[in-house]
Amino acid sequence: MAEQHTIFQALSWASSFLKEYGRDSNAGEILLRAQLNMSRSALLAKLREPLSGTDWNQFEKSVKEHAEGKPVQHITGSEEFFGRTFMVNSDVLIPRPETEELIVALLGKMEKSFEGSFSSLKAADIGTGSGAIAITLKLEKPELSVYATDLSEKALETAKNNAGRLGADIVFLLGDLLQPFVDRGIKLDMVVSNPPYIPEGENLSEVVSGHEPHSALFGGEDGMDFYRRFSQVLPFVLKEQAVAAFEIGNGQGEEVQKIFSAGFPHAKIEVIRDINGKERIVTIVQ
Ligand code: SAM
Ligand code: GLN
């Protein structure tokens, strides 16, 4: 008879196996919980129970895949963002916790600028990927009219599926940065984007560079191509009173602030740090 493993034994094996490969040793618990569809407390209550042979085989396979570099979220097919579950795949960036802070900063600026009254305001998320930002905005502030764009048809497909599952009513537009709004003559009260901002050639972990779309990660030689392009068109797409917020990479704050100052000489432009103390967000309020 094949050897049986308890949940405890399976988790201990995964933890040391993943450590050997330089991966996060907690990934085993995430994978097993997703596989058995169990909360953390349910799993912990069953530590002494045996795993079925099929479950053990499946778990061993998943842990090995992650050790080889496949992101945990590509194995489970999902990621949590702002308290909701988003489906992800290799066509979209896996939403990051830093981006939750972008949303918090944006909502704060909007409350101030529009005094908490958002009805009939038009907001757009540029480069929506999984739809994480646009869908969260719509569900947090249902009065907003929300647009989401991407240059990748496959990303938009994933974002539409997420919006459908989560019940967010959003207008999706395929196109290059702000061009869909220029083409349609739509003026916006609010623009948010987490554009690709990693400098070309930067060394990333295999989990990221081997599995996530490069078109979602790299922003030219210094990583700032997208901010330069935004700064040229954004002034013509925003209304007179408006708010914009961009995610940035650490160390890009001063330069991105300078880039946007050219297009918005009278606006208040701020660099905000994330909870790890890294420059992460630039906001423009005009
Ligand atoms: N908004 C998502 C998030 O925060 O998780 C995804 C952000 S990802 C860093 C950047 C996204 O921008 C990708 O989905 C990519 O396809 C899209 N993108 C890249 N170039 C673009 C362009 N020229 N116009 C519109 N979207 C673009
Ligand atoms: N935060 C992502 C990473 O470090 C990058 C996302 C982006 O380029 N906008 O992998």
UniProtKB/TrEMBL annotation:
Q: Where is the Methyltransferase small domain?
A: 119-201
Domain of life of the source: Bacteria
The Release factor glutamine methyltransferase N-terminal domain covers: 9-77
- This protein's UniProt keywords: Methyltransferase, S-adenosyl-L-methionine, Transferase
Can you tell me where the transmembrane regions are? none
What GO terms are given for molecular function? peptide chain release factor N(5)-glutamine methyltransferase activity
Q: Which residues bind S-adenosyl-L-methionine?
A: 127-131, 150, 194
Where are the coiled-coil regions? none
Q: For this chain's UniProt record, which GO biological process terms are given?
A: methylation
Residues binding substrate: 194-197
What CDD domains does the record point to? AdoMet_MTases (cd02440)
Catalytic activity entry:
L-glutaminyl-[peptide chain release factor] + S-adenosyl-L-methionine = N(5)-methyl-L-glutaminyl-[peptide chain release factor] + S-adenosyl-L-homocysteine + H(+)
Q: Which Pfam families match?
A: MTS, PrmC_N
What EC number(s) is this enzyme filed under?
A: 2.1.1.297
In Swiss-Prot or TrEMBL terms, this protein is called Release factor glutamine methyltransferase
Organism annotation: Siminovitchia sediminis
Q: What is the lineage of its organism?
A: Bacteria, Bacillati, Bacillota, Bacilli, Bacillales
